[in-house]
Specification:
Elements lengths: L7 H4 L11 E7 L4 E7 L3 E6 L4 E7 L2 E5 L2 E5 L4 E4 L5 E5 L3 E7 L11
Antiparallel strand pairs: 1-2, 2-9, 3-8, 4-7, 4-9, 5-6, 5-8
Length: 113
């Protein structure tokens, strides 16, 4: 289990059903979007994929993110914007926390208890 450093006000939110071992997230649900507070172990590569529009800001750690043909290292305070349908992939080599906003209000479902 991941040791999470988000405060209890975040970890008391519904936990997201995320299909990657070593990744946890908590859902703040809006009527038209979804905010996910992610806590990610150094899981290595996340394969290229695409979905609806996404914006994120790094809270802790470093991530190598490829959006389309551009690859950058993102550190605390850096933000990124992925347009809908644009292929992207990531590499997590350190413990990583991020706040992601998805235009798809149903990007993640709450975990079943």
């Amino acid at each position: 289990m991941i040791e999470c450093s988000f405060p209890e006000m975040i970890t008391n939110l519904p936990e997201a059903d995320i299909p990657f071992k070593g990744v946890r997230g908590w859902i703040s649900q809006g009527p038209d979007n979804q905010v996910i507070f992610m806590d990610i172990e150094p899981i290595g590569d996340v394969a290229p994929h695409s979905h609806g529009e996404q914006w994120g800001i790094v809270v802790e750690g470093e991530m190598e993110l490829t959006i389309g043909d551009e690859t950058k290292i993102y550190k605390p305070g850096d933000s990124y914007h992925i347009l809908a349908g644009v292929e992207h992939s990531a590499k997590f080599l350190t413990h990583f926390r991020v706040i992601d906003v998805f235009a798809d209000k149903n990007r993640y479902r709450p975990k079943k208890k």
